[in-house]
Structures are given as C-alpha cells and as structure tokens.
C-alpha cells in the first residue's frame, strides 16, 4: 500500500455555508472535486494523529464519499476513523459519538433536508470536538485552502467493507465500523422518562395514536428502536422508516408542505400525535390531528415544561434559553417568567454551541424546525419528538380528572398563560441572485432612510395598518468569544410589537433563496377566540404590508412563495 500525491487544481465556490458544502451530486462527482474539499479539511485543521467520526444520512453518493475520506484520511496521518455501519449516522448521533468517544471531530455526509439522488444534492460538513458544526474561522480556513490547493494525498488500497461491524485497518489507519443507533439510544435513555411515556401510551392504547414519519431519511432505524422497541408501540406507528438514497424521490423536510405524507396520514387517521424528521435527523415537526406546533412554540413549550424531563432536573435545572433571531419571541416570555437568562443568536445552530459550552444555555430552537438542548451540539429531531411525548405523558399524569391531554390542550394552555406569537415564514426558493440582491439593497435603503420609522403602511385587503417602529440589520457579538457576525437579517419592527425579517438562505445549492419571516404577538387577555385563530388569517395584514414594504414580488418575479411554513 502506498501513498500517492495527485495533482489537482482549485474549484470555484467550495465555500462551506451555514451547514457545510452543499452542491448537486453531479458537482461532487467531477474528478478531484470531493477529494479537493476533503484534502482542504485536512490541510486547514491539524488532524494528524486524530480520531474522527464519519457518517451521514445515506444519501446518493455517500458510499463513494466514505471511501474517498478513508483514502485521504489515511494518507494524511489520521489515526482512527469511527464510521457508521453502511455510512449511516444521523447528525445528532455523530454529535453524540464525537463527544462520547472524545473524538477530535467528524465529517458528516449530508445535505440535510435537501432532496437526494443523482440529480439532487450532496453535502460534506465538518464538526469540531465539542460535537458541533465548525465555527466560521474554521470553515473560512477550509475555504481559503480550496482556493490554493494543488494536490491531494491518497492511500492506494482496496475499499473497506462498511457493512460489517467491527475493527479493521486501512494502511496505518485504524477503522471501526460502529452500530448506527446504539450510542444514541443510550443517550436518550439518560435524558427522558421512558417509563412514564410507556405507561401513558400503554394505558391509552386506543385513545392516543402516534405516528412518526422518517420521510425515508436517516431516522428510520432510530425511530424504530425508540418508538417500536423501547416504547412498545405497534409497527403502524412509524412510516417511511427505510432510509433510501433518494428519500423515496421526496423532499425530506419536515414542514407542512414537504411532509405531506405525515400530514395526510395524521388527518386521515385522526392521529393524536404525529411527528417527522428530516433527511439527517436534526429537524423535527410536531403535528397532531388539527394541531400544528410551530417550531417557535415547540421550543417555548419544551422550555416551559422542562422540569418533567429528568435530564433537566438531574443537572440542577435549566441554565438559559435561546433562539435564532428570526424565531418568534415565545421562548423569551418563558425565560422571563422563569427568571432565566436568554439569548437571540443569528440563524445557524453553531451559534448556540459556545453558550452551551460555557454552561449558560440548556434549551434552544430555531424557526427552521430545529429544537434541541445541551445534551449534544446539534439540533435533534427525535429528541424533540420524545420531549413532546414526555411532556404529554406528564401532563396526563398531573391531571387527575381523566381529561386527555394532547398537543392541542398543551398549546391552548400555553397561549392562555403566555399569549401567542403568530408566526409564519414565506420562502422564495431558487430565485435569480440579482433579484434577491435588489431586494436586500432596497430594504437597506429603507433602513438607512430617516423617514422610514414612523411611516404607516396599510394592507388594502384588510384595511389594517402598521406603523414602522425600528429597522436594522441584525449584528451579533458572541458573548463568550466576542466574535462578531454582521448582516444576519434585515428586521423591521412595528409599533404594535409585530415584526418582519428578510434573510437570504445560507443553505441553498443553486440561485438564491429569500426568506421572509412575520410575527405578530397577541397577549393572553385577548381571549380564546383571538388566540386560537388560524395562523394565515391572524397574519394576513402583516404579510401584505411586508410584501409591500420590500417590493418583493417585483424584485423576485414571484407572485407566490415556494413554501409557507
Ligand atoms: C441549517 C442549520 C440551521 C439553520 C438552517 C438555516 O438547517 O443547521 O441551524 O437554521 O440551516 O437555513 P437557511 O436556509 O435559512 O440558511
Ligand atoms: Zn437536517
């Protein structure tokens, strides 16, 4: 076996975004493309002698990528790779394994919720030793290296069989093929009250139905281990739980548009508790018959009920709470009520990591269907699902009247206590970059203009008007390492406390994706009728005004958003 140095030339655009490098599979398949990026990781970060975890959501091109990593890692002096069986490891599972086995980092093969298959997306992401996504100073170093790379090193050896558990070697490199599910399942057992959940489900076999949809992503085997084996529910409680390289031709994103397989089944079967997770298992959606939980409400509710989850008791309570900037302020209200510290960070889970490492953050979430805690350094789809089951089981145990507590009852109780933040996001996917830039420039113009604040805008359809209070670009200084992230979204607030945010997606693989987030708060004393209104209805006037202010339809050439969540 010999190490060979292969000459190469830089490729343009190998810039890892919020969540790694994401491109079409065809792009990764170009000669030297994947190798260049992987070698750039090893050039940018000193990893000789290190232990790394490798795995992903099993999407198309993953097996090839694992072998490329094996060849390059070995030639670059890595000492050990822990690889998920068949290359399968969910993103939360990788985060846990890095932490549990004190690895130096991990390479995740996923494009998260983006579709997979020969004509869809692939991705490579690097996580650091705390188990979280690499911070910007590291991804910048990797990117810088991709621009100057002139060769990469490979060990020439036959491929490793990654379908067999156990130890092997690849030249000087030690390789262990690990069970994809075991460590993660053990972790969840240290967090939740599975006994309570199981006993609630057993005693409500006919009145409380559960359905988890894996959307053909990586969570299938994990969900089966938790929902079927641990909680003892029937096989009909999971669907689409066989991971497939192209996610069954679907779009593995748990939201109301793409997770229609779940939505349909929940409505048809009047399922009390439905949930789905994305391609790599870090996102989640909670959806029961007639009751959709926005991710912003979900994290607020989990925080509010945290004491029923043993992990947060054992560790001496919840330290702090946090959300990404575009996420609704529902969790802020919980933090205030509980006297907890809370943070507003830019979009991207990596921003929570420093706060967690510093012991100041326990529970956090993002509007982009991400919810999690400091048990790992990634958001965690199944963690959120089990958290909800734990809360529902506890609510039923607490109420001795025999009333059945489900998603709707928990939501109503929350709104009655804290009020409700109506929240919605409009996505305009793969629009021309020039149009998106024009929109950004236009809103920046408004932000700079002295006559913008105080100006009123009326929604012609509803006759309701909104007066601009403040407008700014969101900048963030990390309270721990003082690093500064500028221009993380354009925010306009109104005199009634409503808010609109525009932001360019950092995760698209083609063109630009513009996101518009709208939020309107209704206080608890508005009464049940106001609080239980349909989201679209509650927000219509604000959406009209937001479209008007930003001139969005004209700049993007789109009448309708691609997705509304
Ligand atoms: C990934 C990250 C999330 C982030 C999201 C933003 O899923 O893990 O933390 O919220 O991307 O995506 P966007 O497309 O809005 O940049
Ligand atoms: Zn994901």
UniProtKB/TrEMBL annotation:
The keyword Isomerase applies. One of its GO terms (cellular component) is cytosol. One of its GO terms (biological process) is glucose metabolic process. The lineage of its organism: Eukaryota, Fungi, Dikarya, Basidiomycota, Agaricomycotina. GO terms for molecular function: magnesium ion binding; phosphoglucomutase activity. Belongs to the phosphohexose mutase family. It comes from the Eukaryota. InterPro entries: A-D-PHexomutase_a/b/a-I, A-D-PHexomutase_a/b/a-I/II/III, A-D-PHexomutase_a/b/a-II, A-D-PHexomutase_a/b/a-III, A-D-PHexomutase_C_sf, A-D-PHexomutase_CS, Alpha-D-phosphohexomutase_SF, PGM. It comes from Russula ochroleuca. Its EC number is 5.4.2.2. CDD domains: PGM1. It is an enzyme of class 5 (isomerase). Its cofactor is Mg(2+). It catalyses: alpha-D-glucose 1,6-bisphosphate + L-seryl-[protein] = O-phospho-L-seryl-[protein] + alpha-D-glucose 6-phosphate; O-phospho-L-seryl-[protein] + alpha-D-glucose 1-phosphate = alpha-D-glucose 1,6-bisphosphate + L-seryl-[protein]; alpha-D-glucose 1-phosphate = alpha-D-glucose 6-phosphate. Keywords: Carbohydrate metabolism, Glucose metabolism, Isomerase, Magnesium, Metal-binding, Phosphoprotein. Residues 14-152, 202-287, 313-396 form the Alpha-D-phosphohexomutase alpha/beta/alpha domain. This is phosphoglucomutase (alpha-D-glucose-1,6-bisphosphate-dependent).
């Amino acid at each position: 076996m010999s190490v060979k140095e292969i000459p190469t030339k830089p490729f343009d655009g190998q810039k890892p975004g919020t969540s790694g490098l994401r491109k079409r599979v065809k792009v990764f398949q170009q000669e030297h493309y994947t190798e260049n990026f992987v070698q750039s990781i090893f050039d940018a970060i000193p990893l000789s002698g290190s232990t790394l975890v490798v795995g992903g959501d099993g999407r198309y091109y993953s097996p090839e990528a694992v072998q490329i990593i094996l060849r390059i890692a070995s030639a670059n002096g890595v000492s050990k790779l822990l690889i998920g069986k068949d290359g399968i490891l969910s993103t939360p599972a990788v985060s846990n394994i890095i932490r549990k086995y004190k690895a130096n980092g991990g390479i995740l093969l996923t494009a998260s919720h983006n579709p997979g298959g020969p004509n869809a997306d692939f991705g490579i992401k690097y996580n650091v030793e705390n188990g979280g996504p690499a911070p910007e100073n590291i991804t910048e170093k990797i990117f810088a290296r991709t621009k100057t790379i002139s060769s990469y090193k490979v060990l020439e050896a036959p491929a490793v069989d990654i379908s067999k558990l156990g130890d092997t070697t690849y030249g000087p490199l030690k390789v262990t093929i690990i069970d994809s599910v075991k460590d993660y399942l053990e972790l969840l057992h240290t967090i939740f009250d599975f006994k309570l959940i199981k006993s609630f489900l057993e005693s409500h076999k006919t009145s409380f139905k559960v359905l988890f949809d894996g959307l053909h992503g990586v969570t299938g085997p994990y969900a089966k281990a938790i929902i079927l084996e641990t909680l003892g529910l029937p096989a009909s409680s999971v669907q689409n739980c066989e991971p497939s390289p192209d996610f069954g031709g679907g779009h593995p994103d748990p939201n109301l548009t793409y997770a229609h397989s779940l939505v349909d089944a929940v409505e048809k079967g009047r399922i009390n508790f439905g949930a789905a997770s994305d391609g790599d298992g870090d996102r989640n959606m909670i959806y029961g018959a007639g009751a959709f939980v926005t991710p912003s409400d979900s994290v607020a509710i989990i925080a509010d009920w945290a004491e029923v989850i043993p992990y947060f008791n054992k560790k001496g309570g919840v330290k702090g709470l946090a959300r990404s900037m575009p996420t609704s302020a529902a969790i802020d209200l919980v933090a205030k009520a509980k006297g907890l510290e809370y943070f507003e960070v830019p979009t991207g889970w990596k921003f929570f990591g420093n706060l967690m490492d510093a012991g100041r953050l326990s529970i956090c979430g993002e509007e982009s269907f991400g919810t999690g805690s400091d048990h790992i350094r990634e958001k965690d789809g199944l963690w959120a699902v089990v958290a909800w089951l734990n809360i529902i089981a506890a609510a039923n145990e607490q109420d001795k009247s025999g009333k059945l507590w489900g998603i709707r009852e928990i939501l109503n109780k929350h709104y009655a206590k804290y009020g409700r933040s109506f929240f919605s996001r409009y996505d305009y996917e793969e629009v021309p970059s020039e149009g998106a830039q024009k929109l950004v420039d236009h809103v920046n113009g408004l932000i700079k203009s002295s006559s913008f604040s105080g100006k009123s805008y009326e929604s012609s359809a509803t006759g309701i008007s909104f007066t601009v209070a403040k407008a700014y670009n969101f900048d963030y200084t990390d309270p721990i390492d003082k690093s500064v992230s500028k221009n993380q979204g354009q925010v306009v607030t109104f005199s009634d406390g409503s808010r609109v945010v525009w932001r360019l997606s950092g995760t698209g693989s083609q063109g630009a994706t513009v996101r518009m987030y709208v939020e309107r708060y209704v206080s608890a004393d508005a009464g049940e009728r106001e609080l239980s209104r349909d989201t679209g209805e509650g927000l219509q006037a604000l959406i009209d005004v937001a479209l008007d202010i930003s001139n969005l339809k004209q700049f993007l050439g789109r009448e309708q958003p691609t997705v509304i969540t």
